[in-house]
Design a protein that fits this description.
Elements lengths: L3 E2 L12 E4 L2 H4 E6 L11 E4 L5 E3 L9 E5 L10 E6 L3 E4 L4 E2 L5 H13 L2 E4 L1
Parallel strand pairs: 1-9, 8-10
Antiparallel strand pairs: 2-8, 3-7, 4-5, 4-6, 6-7
Length: 124
């Protein structure tokens, strides 16, 4: 199954993205999302900014390295907002990970390798 770019039909439940986790108290972290002009669904691949906030993965940005998978929905907001993400020790459904439209399949493959290095293993 090919990776998908974000559309309105994204994964809607935690179980559609998170297949296995070692221990929720260790795998998940409370994070802060940067202000966003769009809703961010469960399964969005995230990157941590220099400010410590998280934003959707965009390979065109400098120093972009996938670092988490969003596991709570987030609505568009002009302000930072709390969320929960998987940061380690988990198996995620590779077909339900989401990226923004400009991210190519090759860039998505790089992001998956970065997640795997963190212990977030994408599987079908």
């Amino acid at each position: 199954m090919p990776l998908r770019s974000y559309t309105e039909d994204g994964a809607s439940t935690l179980s559609s993205v998170l297949l296995v986790e070692v221990n929720p108290r260790w795998c998940r972290e409370n994070i802060t999302l940067a202000p966003t002009e769009m809703d961010l669904p469960i399964g969005m691949v995230l990157v941590k900014t220099a400010d410590g906030d998280y934003v959707p993965y965009l390979a065109s940005e400098e120093n972009t390295e996938a670092s988490a998978v969003l596991i709570t929905d987030a609505t568009a907001s002009d302000e930072q907002q709390p969320a929960v993400a998987v940061k380690r020790g988990a198996v995620v459904n590779h077909g339900n990970l989401l990226f923004l439209e400009p991210v190519t399949e090759e860039q998505q493959a790089v992001a998956l390798e970065q997640l795997t290095a963190l212990g977030i293993v994408p599987q079908e």
